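hey
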């Protein structure tokens, strides 16, 4: 079966992409953000996933309010980057993985998730704003993507619990894929606290952001039990999109180890990026390191 090597939670703000394209990585205002993604890129380079399964929401660039699916999975052999009104970003197309995507669709439908499928729809900043910071892409990306769109824009939204169950079903789908050599990393995008309209425009809640980051790693069931209104009250109306992190977290299993976390609030959105490994993977890696560093005489018979 295919193997899930870990997961990433990340904000997906369009200004990240704009600053990156303008080469502002060393600007004092942006450096703390970009530096936070360096360990993520190093982790991906180390574990070398073949595929990124990415939970994201489209911001009415490829899906529109006349027909916005609750859950949709991309099955194309290739995906373009969307032009969101300021010209397409200078990023290459990225490969899909149709075989894995088709298997996941079959598995998810069997698991009672009524999935839409899509082809030839470009990926907007919900995917590409953090992706370029984590994966090298010149001249091409090092692997493929299976994007899973989640509706966090148009009523009715899926509940936090439903997103968590989706992540559990995605785990079962990946682990039943009959390629034992395939390595998959799962990414959840969105948030953190922000509101971009209404009386609370510009609202942030750093205390809640850090509590959310603690709970997503240690006790996600507390987040699963919350309502959309709870997320909006604590983090602003747009912060409800962090329910996509719950899908990522559920795909990693019961316990995880957070090996990296960065939080920065430079604009109207609190930006965070985290890396999680399944707890058993971390324990196995520690055992391997211990074995490699053990004395070469540890298991050798000594005769007088």
């Amino acid at each position: 079966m295919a193997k899930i090597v870990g997961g990433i939670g990340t904000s997906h703000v369009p200004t990240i992409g704009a600053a990156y394209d303008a080469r502002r990585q060393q600007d004092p205002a942006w450096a703390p953000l970009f530096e936070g993604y360096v360990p993520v890129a190093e982790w991906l380079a180390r574990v070398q996933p073949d595929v990124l399964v990415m939970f994201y929401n489209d911001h009415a660039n490829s899906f529109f309010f006349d027909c916005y699916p609750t859950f949709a999975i991309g099955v194309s052999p290739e995906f373009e980057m969307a032009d969101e009104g300021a010209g397409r970003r200078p990023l290459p197309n990225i490969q899909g993985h149709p075989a894995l995507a088709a298997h996941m669709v079959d598995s998810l439908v069997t698991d009672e998730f009524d999935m839409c499928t899509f082809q030839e729809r470009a990926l907007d900043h919900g995917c590409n704003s953090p992706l370029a910071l984590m994966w090298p892409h010149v001249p091409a990306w090092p692997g493929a993507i299976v994007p899973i769109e989640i509706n966090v824009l148009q009523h009715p939204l899926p509940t936090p619990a439903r997103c968590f169950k989706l992540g559990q079903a995605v785990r079962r789908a990946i682990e039943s894929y009959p390629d034992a050599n395939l390595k998959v990393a799962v990414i959840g995008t969105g948030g953190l606290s922000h509101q971009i309209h209404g009386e609370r425009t510009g609202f942030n809640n750093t205390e809640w952001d850090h509590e959310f980051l603690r709970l997503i790693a240690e006790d996600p069931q507390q987040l699963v039990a919350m309502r959309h209104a709870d997320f909006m009250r604590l983090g602003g109306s747009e912060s409800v999109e962090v329910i996509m992190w719950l899908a990522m977290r559920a795909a990693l299993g019961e316990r995880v180890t957070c090996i990296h976390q960065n939080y920065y609030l430079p604009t109207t959105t609190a930006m965070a990026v985290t890396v999680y490994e399944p707890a058993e993977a971390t324990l196995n890696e520690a055992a391997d390191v211990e074995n490699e560093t053990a004395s070469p005489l540890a298991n050798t018979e000594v005769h007088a």
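The longest helix spans residues 31-47. DSSP finds ten helices and ten strands in the chain.
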